[in-house]
Structures are given as structure tokens and as C-alpha cells.
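User: Please predict the structure of the protein below. I'd like the answer in C-alpha cell form so I can feed it into my own downstream comparison script.

Assistant: Understood. Taking the following sequence of 125 residues as input:
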Amino acid sequence: MRHAIATLLAGALLALLATSAAAAPPPQAQREIEQLIDALGRSGCDFQRNGSWYPATEAQAHLRRKYDYLRKRDLVATAEQFIERAGTQSSMSGKAYAVRCPGQGTVPSAKWLGAKLSQFRHATP
């Protein structure tokens, strides 16, 4: 009986440590990811997800939820991983996301987010 309780307690402690061990992405990655999410929200572009178009503010909220999910599970450590794992395609259907901005053609969201990331990194401080 004592062995079973000790085993149970050890398992609970390991589970607690595993959930609290999830590390946040490094500060620079966090900044870049937030910049990407904010840039999309302010862009005035439409965002295609699962065959439907959504305004930028809804896309922003969607990507923020996906980022939160990934961050809680320690699955995103760089802006590139964020783009690949949250901003490229639906995790439910596998369909690619796209971005359509006024006066411009439709582009894959990975390309749009990658270009924004490049702009941020090459901007003068």
C-alpha cells in the first residue's frame, strides 16, 4: 500500500515538474512572434483559413491562440518555428493559409510572414 502511494506521489510530482518545465521562447523570439502577430492584425489584409476569408483582426486572434497552445507545450522556440507550426496551415484540415492584401495578389501565409520577419530583422534599430 505504501509503495503504491509513493509511486502515485512520484508520478504526480513528475507530471507537475513536466508542466512547469515548459520554457518560454527566448526574448528575441517572443518579440519577433508578437511583432508578426501584431503586423498581421494591423495589416488590413484578409486571411484565408480552411477555404474561408477572415479579416486581419480575426486572423490575429487565431494565430495568437495557436501560439499560446504551442508555447504552453514548449513547441516553439523561434519565429521560424512559429511560422511553420502556427502560421502556415490548419492543424485540423492541413489546408494552407493565405494572405490577400489590398492591391496585391494572394500569397501563402508562410511567405507573407517570412517577408515580415525579414523586414523586422533588417530594420534599423
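That's the full C-alpha cell string. The first strand starts at residue 46 and ends at 49.
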